[in-house]
Write a structure and sequence with these properties.
The chain has about 160 residues and is mostly helical. It has 9 helices and no strands. The chain has a single domain, classed as AhpD-like. The chain is globular.
């Protein structure tokens, strides 16, 4: 598949605003490892090859274990994730695949046992941001790995 258009070049001001949001989220109350898991899981759900590729590489650079990366897609059955990570993954799925009735109370209550109000708010913005990136990259078929050098992802030594 070839890329359709380069949305970064076509809308540089809007790209910068979304990038600013993503960069601001690095300073949020949510730890890096959970942000990585959230980005990978939402990208898997949305079928965003560019973002799965990017966030797996980022997670490896951040020290994530390879087996856990393979288990993100099966996190419910896996024993490799802590309750806080499981809550974040459940929240990610609930917000990425919004049901007609919204987010179920049981999911919200489970997440609230693991996250403060501030953390839950920050986590929600994290999910919102990755979903925005997924939609742009899926729409325009951004080629996986095409921005590795620009984002320093070649350091992951994954090819």
């Amino acid at each position: 598949m070839t890329q359709r258009i380069n949305y970064i070049q076509q809308s540089p001001e809007l790209f910068k605003k979304l990038l600013d949001l993503s960069n601001q989220l690095k300073e949020s109350a949510i730890e890096e490892s959970i942000r990585d898991l959230v980005s990978i899981r939402a990208s898997q759900i949305n079928g965003c090859a560019f973002c799965v590729d990017m966030h797996v590489k980022e997670a490896r650079i951040h020290g994530e274990r390879e087996l856990r990366l393979h288990h993100v897609a099966i996190w419910r059955e896996s024993t490799l994730f802590a309750p806080r990570e499981r809550a974040a993954l459940a929240w990610t799925e609930a917000l990425t695949k919004l049901a007609g009735h919204g987010v179920a109370d049981d999911i919200y209550e489970r997440v609230r046992t693991q996250f403060s109000e501030k953390e839950l708010s920050d986590l929600t913005y994290e999910v919102m941001a990755i979903n925005a990136w997924n939609r742009a990259n899926v729409a325009f078929r951004t080629v996986p790995g095409s921005a590795d050098k620009a984002f320093g992802l070649d350091k992951a030594n994954l090819s």
